[in-house]
Amino acid sequence: MAKIKHNNFLDTVNDVFTDAIDEGVLHLYADGESFSGRTIGVNGKNLFHFGTTGYLGLEQDPRLKAAAISAIERFGTQFPLSKSYISNPLYRELEEKVTQMYNNPVVITKNSTLGHLGVIPSAVKDQDAIILDHQVHWSVQSAAKMLKTRSVPVDMVRHNDLNMLEDKIKSLSGTRKRIWYMADGIYSMFGDYAPIKDLKALSEKYPQLYLYFDDVHGMSWIGKNGTGYVMSEINELSENMLLFGTLSKTFGASGSVLVCSNKKLYREIKTFGGPLTFSAQLEPASVAAATASAKIHLTPEIYTLQNDLKERTQYFNKLLRETDLPLIDKNDSPVFFIGTGMPNTGYNFVNRLMKDGFYVNLGLFPAVPVKNTGVRITISRHNQYEEIKALVDAMVYHLPKAIEETNTSLNRVYQAFKLETKQKTALDSNNDLTIQLVDSISKIDKNIWNTLVGTCGVQDWDGLKFLEETFSNNKLEENNWKFWYVIINDNKNVPVLASFLCACLWKEDMLASVSASKTIEDERKTDPYYMTSKVLSLGCLFTEGDHLYINTKHALKQEALNLFLHSTEKLEVESNSKMIVLRDFDGNEDLHTYFQGRGFIRLQMPDACQIQLHPEESIEQYINNLSARNKRHFRNDILKHESELDVAIVQKLNGSQIKQAQNLYNNVRENNLGLNTFKYPAKLFENMSHHPNWEFIIINTLENNDRMIGIMFCYKNNNLTYVPSLIGLDYDYIKNHQTYRQLLYQTIKRAIQLNLRHIDLGLTASFEKRKLGANINEKFAYIQTSDNYGLELLGLLEG
């Protein structure tokens, strides 16, 4: 029935990246006629370079440069033939040297992204399954998703969660031949490790488990012959493992390498691997430079280089331990992440460091949750000790200033990353503002509330009192909601901001695609709370409309918003919520910039539908104002059927009607997974029937006026707005009797009869509502979470 407009993940990423570009921290161009690795030119300034992935500095090694130059002079800038036919003469030596490094057969690929696209569809058979670590590199996830077209199950576990992984292995072991777990060796944002030894032990316990590692960030700076972090942990590659390393980044050249000890699997991949077959081969200069690097890796010199880098990373770690800087993961890799929490704090911090002479990378969504933005710092052999010390001093100086200028606190940064705070900071306050924060609408003045927030939906004072009583003391967790009400006044007691929040259990796929929800609902047959989370939301699941009142002309509106968001953060912790959702906003660009800079991502909601009514207008006059096309629709699809139905306006339902109404509503809920919510308790329908603000538009058959085939549950807000909040339908009658369209029409007819001014027709089904004169408005939600797992799993299910 309802057509749901679903979110485009790329739109969200584009929003975040556009902000970062506008702030001057992304899509930059390096300046200068040369590059040494120690410094980098940005916007006319020479900055000390702490953003490289060339940790050993081999890209500047004279031997690699000389080899590349010689190859170009001898073979040209490229060798324009498919490698499936014939390889550049330099390839043979490269393959021999890299094979010697790993002591296993290898396949050289153009880059790791094309490598994954070639290897994963070849290695994973139709009888297999894939489980992804939710932080595994995008290129691995993208390649794995392709196999869904072959009906290969692709699932995901939380980062490094071996208990969750083992549960999924058990669930798949009876139906799948091989179960592939895909992870990074070193994760590129925080520099943390995969638990390689534990994963190997798990694969020995479950022989069906095959391990696929992307270790491009662990390459060269660790391991025998610089073969990387994974090899340093296991020493020998077993036949149930595939390993990707890189010939770029720390290796200093270009390309990627797959290592495979399973001879049969190796032949299959090398013989035909999609992009491995059809993509252009590496340029002669890249092959020659990689060969020169491989020769270094096969000599004791590699350990000298590794130790040199290790001493620098240890020095950096030592300096960080002496500070309060929020280092997110303590490890020995050359990758470090200093948390800033909110994106705008990160923008400010990065720009401050660049002005002070240091180039660092900003880690932002989707690589990390928006709320977990931070500065990614890499240490290389190019970095001198005095520069490392200067960087730490600069961060100690600039981070507090960036935090202050973006209205946050170090304590809140620690809280965002779930770190133990090193210091206690005062809560946000403003001497010009006072905040009233209470847990019941009964503690709020009724007239003030109805003037500020209670102008639409079921969110006037009486409606919220009804919801408090209905969603409390119920048997099921999902039907017990906690409410808070906020009013922020200036020192003259003039309201600047008002809203209410609700904490309750949500289905994480509430706004996901129908296909994703169907998959998740199958899991919920055995685990009812699978992919559900406690959410703190603006408004509640039962209300729609403008939940946030802001006095836009008030000089302190920005300060009031800051105070309000700080209050939501405290309530998030207090309620043990995993996510904050601010909902039902239009396309206000000022608010969009504000929320996004404070750690929220914008997702598009279903459109909202509203009707404005004119005083003393009759239903005939209303219909006559529709377009000619819509009037034809009304005559043919609605008016024609009205005489076939028994339509009644009922103020109170009897026991039989309550039961029928609940069943009809559940029909709609179960048939509308595009807006996937929990079932409401029977108490809701009973309370509606006894509340003076609720009434019911009921459609019965003429043959049996006790047989309810449609019902609209309508709320009268302040005698101004009519709110058809829920609908119930018997789907056996919906097509022949047009009961859904009939209920929409009867709702308009009733609102006009009551001489009301507005109808809040709610979300979804905008096409049908537009035909009856509704105004359609885009609506957005802003989501803040410190864990991307749910969003990424939904993306996997929808992809």
Helix coverage percent: 25-40%
Query: What's the level 1 CATH class of the largest domain?
Result: Alpha Beta
Structural class: alpha+beta
The CATH H-level homologous superfamily of the largest domain: Type I PLP-dependent aspartate aminotransferase-like (Major domain)
Described by the principal axes of the CA atoms, the overall outline is globular
Low-confidence stretches: 1-6
Distance between the termini: 23 Å
Task: Kindly report the CATH topology of the largest domain.
Answer: Aspartate Aminotransferase, domain 2
Integer tally of domains: 4
Describe it for me?
The protein folds into 4 domains: 9-55 and 303-416, Aspartate Aminotransferase, domain 1; 62-297, Type I PLP-dependent aspartate aminotransferase-like (Major domain) (Aspartate Aminotransferase, domain 2); 433-605 and 782-798, Gcn5-related N-acetyltransferase (GNAT) (Aminopeptidase); 609-778, Gcn5-related N-acetyltransferase (GNAT) (Aminopeptidase, 3-Layer(aba) Sandwich), CATH 3.40.630. A hairpin with a 3-residue loop joins strand 25 and strand 26 (721-729). With 799 residues, the chain is an alpha+beta fold. 39% of the residues lie in helices and 21% in strands. It has 28 helices and 29 strands. The model is unreliable at 1-6 (pLDDT under 50). The strands form 5 sheets. Strands 15, 16, 17, 18, 19, 20, 21 and 29 form an 8-stranded mixed beta sheet that branches. The chain is globular. GO terms for molecular function: pyridoxal phosphate binding; transaminase activity. Keywords: Aminotransferase, Transferase.
